[in-house]
Amino acid sequence: MKSIYCVIAMMLVANVICALTVTYPNGGEVLVKGDTYEISWYGGGSGNVAIKLIGEDEEIDISRGTPNNGSYSWKVPVDLPLSDSKIRITHLSDSSAWDESDDYFRFSSPIIKVTSPKSGDELSGGSEYTITWTSNCYEGQVFIYLQGLTNAVIDPVVPNSGSYRWKVPHPDGVKQDSCRIGIYFNNKEGANEANYSGYFTIVPDFYKREKPKPPSPGKKMRGFVYVPAGSFIMGNTRDKGDPDERPTHKVTLNSFYIGKYEVTQKEYSKYMKPGLNWSSQKGHGDNYPAYYVSWYAVLKYCNLRSIAEKLTPCYTIAGSTNPKDWGSVPTSKNAIWDDVICDFSANGYRLPTEAEWEYAARGATNDPDYLYSGSDDVRAVAWYDLNSGDSSNPVGSKVANGLQIHDMSGNVWEWCWDWYGIYSDSPQDNPTGPEAGDGRLLRGGGWYNSADYSRVSNRFSCDPGNGVNHYGFRLCRTTK
Q1: What is the mean pLDDT of the chain?
Q2: Between these two residues, 454 and 14, which has the higher pLDDT value?
Q3: What is the CB neighbour count within 10 angstroms for residue 436?
Q4: β strands within 200-296, DSSP E
Q5: Quick check: do 8-108 and 216-480 share a fold?
Q6: How far apart are alpha carbons 191 and 100 in whole angstroms?
Q7: Residue 2 predicted with pLDDT over 70
Q8: What single string gives the DSSP state of each residue in 420-461?
Q9: Helix, strand or coil for residue 311?
Q10: How deeply is 139 buried, as exposed, middle or buried, from its count of CB atoms within 10 A (0-12, 13-18, 19+)?
């Protein structure tokens, strides 16, 4: 039977040590690795003690030469090899004066559990939300990150308080499912396995905003948007861009129709095959934009579709509007195909002019003077290098501009009719570009490029026989 009190007679004898009694931990407790605990005892008189951790097959020194004041603050090592253990305290002046825990206690690794967001929750982009968690550990710091939207760090150093106030990010203009929060201890070696919340959805804040009203339409045409006649300032109006975007100049245009979406793979494959096969790595499916499409190939597609739909073809090559007479689509610059004539009065399908493209991308107005098509926030309206996943994406999955046209910034570059040329500061009416040149114009940027290329005023050109995995197009029609 352990002695609780020192015998008074023994206290009167010089150099005789009173018995020791361990009070904590004393058996049955669970100590979390990495947390700090107060080992406590009483008795033993003055002097110093040694504290050991006693396992079934191993002993580990905790401290030697600790003052016998009844307590010792001990941080449990995270890499502690023992499981069930006892504490033994021995007086250094008399090894017969010792005691240990009555029974074994055990150790546990730090455990964390995310309690919110919960599975099925819907969070609004831009709003504030409280992330909560529980743990068996009462100290240290945690690392919090978001998985599924950006796989981004939310905060790498958060006190283990059980809650964190978080500003929900904007989900790049689309409703984002399959998001979850991961949390793990960032300062406890061996305890870095994350615990996750249930899957939740982040909704763009524009879902809750009133969407812009479309302009008064002309005759409705399925898959197309009516662009009213008007004037606008073309070029770099925001002091951001390249020299070829200046000088700005006034352009006046007749009304026209333009595709609400980029031409899809389903639409393109009805009449033609791409230069190379579409792949899942760069986007493959009915609603993905057609790519591997050269400028020359677009001419053929437009006339084939016009003829099939009993419309008047716009393009004439070598005196014929029938693509069967044109021969194979060139894969490099071709003088015969470069002499193509466009009948802008025909009601068939054609490419937009560069001016028509920019006017439509701006929503037929310079007010507001957006940097991208429909927004100053590129994430809301464009698939570009930082959010595309290194691939094209289904058309219409980003926010539309004021005319309700999608993807005029990003996703795939879009061919225009014009040869590349230098701007003039003179006002122009329905311009169609230079008579000749080295490259045909592309607009809008693509999934492969940085946000700068998605600006509405950005210009790029390429050999008309070239069709790569981020070149596509949208159609245009003249109003009647």
Answers
A1: 87
A2: 454
A3: 9
A4: 200-203, 224-227, 230-234, 249-253, 256-259
A5: no
A6: 29
A7: no
A8: P----SS-EES----S--S-EEEES--TTS-GGGGSTT--EE
A9: coil
A10: middle
Residue spans of the domains in the chain: they are 8-108, 112-207, 216-480
> What are the pLDDT digits (tens) for 432-447?
999 999 999 999 999 9
Q: Which CATH architecture has domain 112-207?
A: Sandwich (2.60)
CB atoms within 10 A of CB 120: 9
- Please count the helices (runs of H) and the strands (runs of E) in the chain: 6, 30
Cis peptide before 323 (omega within 30 of 0): no
26 closest CA partner among 36, 37, 35, 34: 37
| Among 395, 401, 403, 392, CA closest to 474 | 395
Whether residue 123 contacts residue 168, with contact meaning beta carbons closer than 8 Å, is answered with yes
Q: What is the dihedral of CA 220, 225, 228, 232, to 10 degrees?
A: 180
Radius of gyration (C-alpha) of the chain in whole angstroms = 37
Q: Are the beta carbons of 433 and 472 closer than 8 angstroms?
A: no
Q: Residue 151: which pLDDT band, with cuts at 50, 70 and 90? A: low
Pair type for strands 413-419 and 471-472? parallel
Of the candidate ranges 102-106, 167-171, 202-206, 236-240, the one whose mean pLDDT is the lowest: 202-206
pLDDT average, residue stretch 283-312: 97
Pairing of strands 195-196, 122-124: unpaired
The whole-angstrom separation of Cα 383 and Cα 412 is 8
Matching residue, tokens 């005759």:
219
**Residue 264 burial class via C-beta count within 10 angstroms: exposed 0-12, middle 13-18, buried 19 and up:** buried
Q: Which two tokens stand for residue 181?
A: 């929060």
H/E stretch holding 131 reads: strand 128-135
CATH of the structural domain 216-480, one choice from 3.90.1580.10, 1.10.3720.10, 3.40.430.10, 3.20.20.370: 3.90.1580.10
